[in-house]
């Protein structure tokens, strides 16, 4: 009894630390004589009496409440022993989990929370404190070990039991608790005595519980009073508020309120959850958009870059998109990719149009071809471009021709079409191209003379200038394009058939040559070609001067074309053209000269200077020299051109024949003159002599100066023909002069009954006198006739000899007459 | 009066004992038997239990503070903290489970490591469940030789029959007391060597 007087002493706690609601076992001394003796239990300052279960005087099981202090004593108070002490302490740990009502910035999965509270394995719920062994007798060891060893065999047993008691449970907290099942499960081997004891235990426990709750009520009497006071206060308040007037009972109202609260909470959470779902989906969509931003923005970017002209960027993007999404299975990507494809297709068309668009520079063309090949355009854009360029050049050339022809047919005085044509030519590709020096020379040569030249130049010449300029500017581009195509530097596959196909360039060359021919040498074309390339009105032949100019122009263009390393077999066409032009030019010039020479005769004024010459020889010389000068550049052999000397050989006899024929003309027009024909003949003879002695030498010098070959031959031929002429003239003259002498002699002969047989000494005084008269006549006209006669080879010497010659001739003539 | 007693208690010398051993060897059973003369049949794994009571050792009143630790390896990480506060250790194994005996070596290593600065740590090797002789797996000789190797005492106990339960606690407390006294002497004077020896002799005798 004295022992019970001792105050309770807590000497053990298991465990010594834990979170709230941890089940603890308190051990010690004098912890009360029974459940009713225990009237107080605090752990860390928290009253745990409600959950405390008195097991024995040395053991109490309870749960730690929401204590304020972290660490504290366990104080047990008993009726018998009073307030006790503790030698051990309990440490309250902070719960790691976020409470159900705690504010939290993060999403808390509440499942875990409920799990810990409802987990049967960790202990029964706090308020349903039940001893593990309600019967208070030993549970079958066998079953224990089974449970410890594992669940397998236990599960088997449980299955059998389930079959035996359908819808029942061995859990004594369950509503469907089956006592039989419980006994079979836990006490199958327990003896009847033991079970009797268990019944006793159960009864005792039931009593204990009653006593316990009674004790609890007693212990917390003041609390109950307080509770009752509070309840009555609430009741009064409710009455005062007139709640009874509100329809329905208070619980119903509360229920309504609760329902409303629940609904509000639901809507709140629905909103929150809906927002969360929406946010999630939005975030997903944004992520997708962000990740594939490139693809989605691509159509717009392509459009923009096309407008800006950044085709490189577009092509890069396209390649990237193709590699990334070309084989995509996603519908959205497919759609976008198709969109991109259509845009790229449009771009291809645009580029192709741009490529085929003329005029354009080589640089641009190459660029577009590269873009197109990068974009895997179908077909062969480079070849298409070449074709288009070719057509364009041809068209340009024809247009040029047409405009000039029209110009010529229309008012040829107006030069506006030329200006039109100027604007037709592409702006200034010269800047892009590295023009050769010769081309520059050519252009400066042309432009330098343009202003004065154009006013006077015939349409054909202007046309040829324009045309060659056109070709020289355009063809190199075309050729370069071609070369790079053949090299394979245009990024497109080369069609083998195209590789050695120079048709297009040839065609350009041919049409150039034919157009020029059509303008200048219409007779060298066939009828059909003439219709196509010609169409010029042949009012007047071009002069040699203009032809020379044309030749120069064509030559310059030829030079610049050779500078582009265009194969020779193509340039042959041009060479042939040049050769033809030169021949033509020479012919025209020579014809002109011949005509000039012919016309010289008409200009004869028969004014004799002191040397017995008229102005005719010097004029003739001038004529020849002039034509030579104008021919000089034509005859010059440029490297690679066929020599035209043969032409000269062929044509000089022509001139000479003109030479020869010209004195004939002298003779034919003598009637009009005041001078006697004899005198004229003498003058002509004198002129011939001068020609032979001075003019031809001068001309030969000129020939040599202009470095013509075969001058000797020419001189020789001309000398021969001159001599022949001279001979003929002299004979005519002698005949003319001899006739009167013979006539005057004949009467004398017949008067003196002259008989050739008995004629002793010619009594030629009269005859002699006549001869002297003639000689003086000759001498007056031609003081140097003697020397001339000498030159003819009739002997040199004085008058006597001349007389003798004359006489002998006369005599010869007389004799022949007789 | 209670306050007075409380005061007395708190002024009393306190020996801190820590129960060490694998799970299920009977540390809690030994503790509860020593503390409350009761034997707990059902097994509930311990986390960390504290017990403290007044004992009379060789006529002197002491307080013994027993920290019953968790044997499960789950709690191995927090053992260091417990060990640091301990003054004496009961290294418990079950003679019916050989693995628990082998585990003692490792646990001892851990104790030595934590208390590296102390030269002699009061420690007893306890072979529990000696009542279950028929299920013995650890021979007495082996356990004893191991204890000798470590220079500590080996005692076989039974928490069920209370055999040697008091002895292990009291022997350990004596060792703790002897160690403390020698340390005090160390602090107070320089004649520790001889005293220490005599204490040791006495320890051996008991």
UniProtKB/TrEMBL annotation, chain A:
UniProt domain Exocyst complex component EXOC2/Sec5 N-terminal: residue ranges: 155-638, 676-763
Residue span(s) of domain IPT/TIG: 8-91
Pfam families from the UniProt entry: Sec5, TIG
The entry's keywords: Exocytosis, Protein transport, Transport
GO cellular component, one term: exocyst
Function: Component of the exocyst complex involved in the docking of exocytic vesicles with fusion sites on the plasma membrane.
Name of this chain's protein: Exocyst complex component 2
Originating organism: Chrysemys picta bellii
Phylogenetic placement of the source organism: Eukaryota, Metazoa, Chordata, Craniata, Vertebrata
TrEMBL record, chain B:
Biological process, per Gene Ontology: positive regulation of autophagosome assembly; positive regulation of epidermal growth factor receptor signaling pathway; positive regulation of innate immune response; receptor internalization; signal transduction
Region described as Disordered: 181-206
Membrane topology term: Lipid-anchor
GO cellular component, one term: plasma membrane
GO molecular function: ATPase binding; G protein activity; GDP binding; GTP binding; ubiquitin protein ligase binding
Keyword Nucleotide-binding applies: yes
E.C. number(s) listed in UniProt: 3.6.5.2
Residue intervals passing through the bilayer: none
Subcellular location: Cell membrane; Midbody
Record Pfam families: Ras (PF00071)
Enzyme class: hydrolase
Keyword entries, A-Z: Cell membrane, GTP-binding, Hydrolase, Lipoprotein, Membrane, Methylation, Nucleotide-binding, Prenylation
Similarity section: Belongs to the small GTPase superfamily. Ras family.
Identification of the protein by name: small monomeric GTPase
Organism whose genome encodes this protein: Chrysemys picta bellii
């Amino acid at each position: 009894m004295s022992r019970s007087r001792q105050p309770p002493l807590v000497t053990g706690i298991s465990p010594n630390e834990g979170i709230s609601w941890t089940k603890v076992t308190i051990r010690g001394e004098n912890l009360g004589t029974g459940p009713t003796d225990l009237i107080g239990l605090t752990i860390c300052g928290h009253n745990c009496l409600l959950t405390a279960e008195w097991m024995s005087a040395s053991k109490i099981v309870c749960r730690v409440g929401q204590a304020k202090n972290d660490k504290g004593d366990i104080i047990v108070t008993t009726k018998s022993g009073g307030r006790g002490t503790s030698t051990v302490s309990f440490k309250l740990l902070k719960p790691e989990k976020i409470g159900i009502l705690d504010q939290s910035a993060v999403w808390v999965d509440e499942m875990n929370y409920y799990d810990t509270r409802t987990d049967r394995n960790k202990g029964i719920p706090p308020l349903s404190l039940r001893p593990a062994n309600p019967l208070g007798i030993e549970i079958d060891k066998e079953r224990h070990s089974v449970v410890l060893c594992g669940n397998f065999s236990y599960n088997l047993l449980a299955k059998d039991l389930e079959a035996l008691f359908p819808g029942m449970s061995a859990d004594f907290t369950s509503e469907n608790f089956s006592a039989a099942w419980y006994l079979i499960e836990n006490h199958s081997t327990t003896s009847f005595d033991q079970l009797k004891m268990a019944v006793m235990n159960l009864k005792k426990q039931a009593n204990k519980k009653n006593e316990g709750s009674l004790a609890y009520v007693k212990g917390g009497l003041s609390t109950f009073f307080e509770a009752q006071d509070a309840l009555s206060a609430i009741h009064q308040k409710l009455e005062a508020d007139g709640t009874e007037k509100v329809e329905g009972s208070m619980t119903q109202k509360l229920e309504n309120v609760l329902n409303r609260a629940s609904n509000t909470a639901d809507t709140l959470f629905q909103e929150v959850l809906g927002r969360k779902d929406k946010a999630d989906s939005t975030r997903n969509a944004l992520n997708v958009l962000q990740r594939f931003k490139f693809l989605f923005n691509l159509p717009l970017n392509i459009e923009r870059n096309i407008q800006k002209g950044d085709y490189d960027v577009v092509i890069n993007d396209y390649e990237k998109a193709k590699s990334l999404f070309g084989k995509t299975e996603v519908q959205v990507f497919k759609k976008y990719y198709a969109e991109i494809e259509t845009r790229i297709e449009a771009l291809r068309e645009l580029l192709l149009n741009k490529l085929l668009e003329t005029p354009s520079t080589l640089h641009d063309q190459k660029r577009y071809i590269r873009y197109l090949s990068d974009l895997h355009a179908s077909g062969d854009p480079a070849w298409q471009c070449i074709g288009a360029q070719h057509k364009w050049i041809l068209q340009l050339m024809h247009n040029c021709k047409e405009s000039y022809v029209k110009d010529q047919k229309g008012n040829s005085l107006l030069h506006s079409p030329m200006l039109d044509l100027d604007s037709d030519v592409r702006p200034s590709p010269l800047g892009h191209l590295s023009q050769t020096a010769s081309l520059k020379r050519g252009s400066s040569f042309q432009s330098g003379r343009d202003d004065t030249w154009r006013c006077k130049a015939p349409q054909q010449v202007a046309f040829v200038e324009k045309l060659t300029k056109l070709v020289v500017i355009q063809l190199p581009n075309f050729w370069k394009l071609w070369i790079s195509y053949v090299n394979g530097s245009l990024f497109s596959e080369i069609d083998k058939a195209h590789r050695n196909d120079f048709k297009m360039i040839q065609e350009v060359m041919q049409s150039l040559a034919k157009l020029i021919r059509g303008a200048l040498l219409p007779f060298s074309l066939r009828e059909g070609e003439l219709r196509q390339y010609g169409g010029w009105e042949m009012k007047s032949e071009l002069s040699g001067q203009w032809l020379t100019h044309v030749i120069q122009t064509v030559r310059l263009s030829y030079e610049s074309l050779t500078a582009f390393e265009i194969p020779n077999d193509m340039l042959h066409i041009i060479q042939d053209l040049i050769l033809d032009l030169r021949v033509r030019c020479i012919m025209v010039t020579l014809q002109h000269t011949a005509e000039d020479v012919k016309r010289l005769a008409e200009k004869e004024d028969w004014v004799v200077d002191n040397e017995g010459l008229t102005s005719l020889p010097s004029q003739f010389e001038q004529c020849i020299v002039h034509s030579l000068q104008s021919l000089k550049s034509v005859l010059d052999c440029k490297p690679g051109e066929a020599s035209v000397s043969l032409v000269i050989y062929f044509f000089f006899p022509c001139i000479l024949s003109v030479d020869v024929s010209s004195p004939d003309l002298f003779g034919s027009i003598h009637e009009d003159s005041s001078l006697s024909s004899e005198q004229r003949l003498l003058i002509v003879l004198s002129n011939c002599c001068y020609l032979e002695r001075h003019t031809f030498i001068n001309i030969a010098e000129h020939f040599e100066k202009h470095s013509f070959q075969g001058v000797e031959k020419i001189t020789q031929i001309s000398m021969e023909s001159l001599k022949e002429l001279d001979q003929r003239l002299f004979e005519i003259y002698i005949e003319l002069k001899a006739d009167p002498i013979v006539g005057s002699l004949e009467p004398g002969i017949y008067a003196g009954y002259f008989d050739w047989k008995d004629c002793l000494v010619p009594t030629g005084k009269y005859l002699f006198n006549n001869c002297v008269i003639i000689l003086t006549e000759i001498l007056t006209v031609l003081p140097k006739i003697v020397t001339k006669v000498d030159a003819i080879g009739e002997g040199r010497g004085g008058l006597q000899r001349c007389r003798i010659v004359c006489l002998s001739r006369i005599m010869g003539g007389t004799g022949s007459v007789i | 009066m209670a306050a007075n007693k409380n005061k007395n208690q708190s002024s009393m010398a306190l020996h801190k004992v820590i129960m060490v051993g694998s799970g299920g060897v009977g540390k809690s059973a030994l503790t509860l038997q020593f503390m409350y003369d009761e034997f707990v049949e059902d097994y509930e794994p311990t986390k960390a239990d504290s017990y403290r009571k007044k004992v009379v050792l060789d006529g002197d009143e002491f307080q013994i503070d027993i920290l019953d630790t968790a044997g499960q390896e789950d709690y191995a990480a927090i053992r260091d903290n417990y060990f640091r506060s301990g003054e004496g250790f009961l290294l418990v194994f079950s003679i019916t489970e050989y693995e628990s005996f082998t585990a003692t070596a490792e646990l001892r290593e851990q104790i030595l490591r934590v208390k590296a600065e102390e030269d002699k740590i009061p420690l007893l090797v306890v072979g529990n469940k000696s009542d279950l002789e028929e299920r013995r797996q650890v021979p007495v000789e082996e356990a004893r030789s191991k204890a000798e190797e470590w220079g500590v005492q080996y005692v076989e106990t039974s928490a069920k029959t209370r055999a040697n339960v008091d002895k292990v606690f009291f022997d350990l407390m004596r060792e703790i007391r002897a160690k403390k006294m020698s340390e005090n002497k160390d602090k107070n004077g320089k004649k520790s060597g001889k005293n220490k020896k005599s204490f040791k002799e006495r320890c051996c005798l008991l």
